[in-house]
Write a structure and sequence with these properties.
The structure holds two protein chains of two kinds.
Chain A (H helix, E strand, L loop, with lengths): L2 E6 L2 E2 L5 E8 L7 E8 L3 E8 L5 E3 L7 E6 L4 E6 L8 E9 L9 E5 L3 E5 L2
Parallel strand pairs in A: 2-11
Antiparallel strand pairs in A: 1-3, 3-8, 4-5, 4-9, 5-6, 7-8, 9-10, 9-11
Chain B lengths: L3 E4 L2 E4 L5 E7 L8 E6 L6 E5 L3 E2 L7 E6 L2 E6 L9 E6 L6 E2 L3 E5 L1
Classes of the chains: A mainly beta, B mainly beta.
């Protein structure tokens, strides 16, 4: 059974870089897309982007210029960086496994999810 | 990008009753690419349904999904105390993937 455990800094100042990592335990790391999703009071659930084991990424155009998603297959981990954060980036960030196939940007639902990390951006 | 609108915002019911939650898309959803999730306070969303009506592993048959085109429904029969939560629909036909704003199912 696949389990995801995530970690990273929870309090940032404006203009800093958000950095989160998610470790995958159990199941196949190579046969899936690995995803970041955030949840805020203002925007609800928002898909950020995804990466496969080869490092191929697909990112929400609304965040693309500030987001980098990477993978470390030796550790079964993937990571998220968001640069130049503002208060609007305050949210609970989740990692998740994308299900539904390996077509980049193709059909994808999310199961399971990590436990979530609250990231607050405040001066 | 397809916009999903869920209704009602809040649904108040008693255990044992049947809940009917609606998810309407801004345009027709092709390929039955509609999923549902349950979220309890302080927890991550839990996947319930994919492909409009297929239950995820371990999900009780009290949960059923239906619909086509742009109108979809999650029905929860014989409500149990643990079913009271927030429910989200998701369109997953292609990125960027979108979610509805959620329906809160509360105990009456």
């Amino acid at each position: 059974q696949v389990q995801l455990q995530q970690w990273g800094a929870g309090l940032l100042k404006p203009s800093e870089t958000l950095s989160l990592t998610c470790a995958v335990y159990g199941g196949s790391f190579t046969g899936n897309y690995w995803t970041w999703i955030r949840q805020s009071a203002g925007k609800g659930l928002e898909w950020i982007g995804e990466v496969n084991h080869r490092g191929d990424t697909n990112t929400n155009p609304s965040l693309k210029s500030r987001v980098a998603i990477s993978v470390d297959t030796s550790k079964n981990q993937f990571s998220l960086k968001v640069t130049s954060v503002t208060a609007a980036d305050t949210a609970v960030y989740y990692c998740a496994r994308g299900r539904g196939g390996l077509v980049p940007g193709g059909p994808r639902w999310f199961d399971p999810w990590g436990q979530g990390t609250l990231v607050t951006v405040s001066s | 990008e397809i916009v999903l609108t869920q209704s009602p915002g809040t649904l108040s019911l008693s255990p044992g009753e049947t809940a009917t939650l609606s998810c309407r898309a801004s345009q027709s959803v092709s390929g039955s690419y509609l999923a549902w999730y349950q979220q309890k306070p302080g927890q991550a969303p839990r996947h319930l349904i994919y492909g409009v009506s297929s239950r995820a592993s371990g999900i009780p048959d009290r949960f059923s999904g239906s619909g086509s085109g742009a109108d979809f429904t999650l029905t929860i029969s014989r409500l149990e105390p643990e079913d009271f939560a927030v429910y989200y629909c998701q369109h997953y036909g292609g990125s960027p993937y979108s979610f509805g704003q959620g329906t809160k199912l509360e105990i009456k």
